[in-house]
Structures
1.
Amino acid sequence: MLLETVLTLALVLTLSAPAVAVPPADAPGTAKPAPLPKEDVIETSAGPLALRFIGHGSLAFGFAGKTIYVDPYGKVGDYAAMPKADLVLITHEHGDHLDPAALSAVAGPDTPLVVSEAVREKLGRGTALKNGEKTEILGLPIAAVPAYNIKHHRDTGEPFHPQGRGNGYVLTFGDVRVYVAGDTEDIPEMAALAGVDVAFVPMNLPYTMTPEMAAAAGRTLKPKKALYPYHYGDTDPARLVELLAGSGIEVRVRELR
Ligand SMILES: [Zn+2]
């Protein structure tokens, strides 16, 4: 049994070995980097807030015994194994943000949903907020803010995310404001969000921001606690870290490809 395991492991290592010789994993200086945290906890005036990184544009917040999901997407997480939602926010109707199967795995027919109008049209339910509109659910103030492209567009000339269609959200947990930008570029409306505590900014190309745009967004937002690149696809988040070095903004990279 043990021998079999060892042989299988040896085979796997042989098959996956790169062409150049690498020193053994226990050699000094070659330790594998620690896995990225799946969750960060931030203290608020109303108790701890857990920021959970599911992957891609999918997040969850744990606060006061409730679980709030943003853009649940079945390709990046097993939602059947996650806690049931007390609230779900959906930014826009694209398939990696509005995934009805992932949604029904965490949300029942009565779970409150905060959505864009286009999402409400597709789902047939939810509280639809336009850019600039606000609501309060579970005692949490929620504001819908603009999310759109200025530069990046389809071959037809149509922006990937036309102005006024999708939402970003600002959620307030006690004295902590969390901005989830949705699929957007560094739009001028971000100036009104300067001084949020936590910001999640997307970098998957060509649909959202280059690291340079995300850095500009970071400098505008000046989040007090942390800036998280999220929904970054194949864009290297290390580039954003580099661009914001010395800015006083804490860029936290998590597994949110
Ligand atoms: Zn999108």
2.
Amino acid sequence: MWASLVSFRLWEPATPVQIRASPFNMVKTKKARHAGRFGTGYGTRVRKRLNVIEDAQRKKQTCPYCKKPGVKRVASGIWHCKKCGKKFAGPAYSLKK
Ligand SMILES: [Zn+2]
């Protein structure tokens, strides 16, 4: 009991912003959202912008070739469509504006 409490405390970063990997706990972190994984150390503006960008990034991207939603971002500006297997260059974060 005591040991588990201690390890739990160690696991927790000393920040008021909740950072959890689990989707259940993510519900509680309204403000931090995607930026929560960075904890403090970044300003509000950067974190807000990151949330906007990553929201768009996580939505299903539609392939401009086969029009199917199977495109994943490989790297910044590099996209790969699972459906037709095409790899193409495009916008850095999201195919949709
Ligand atoms: Zn495609």
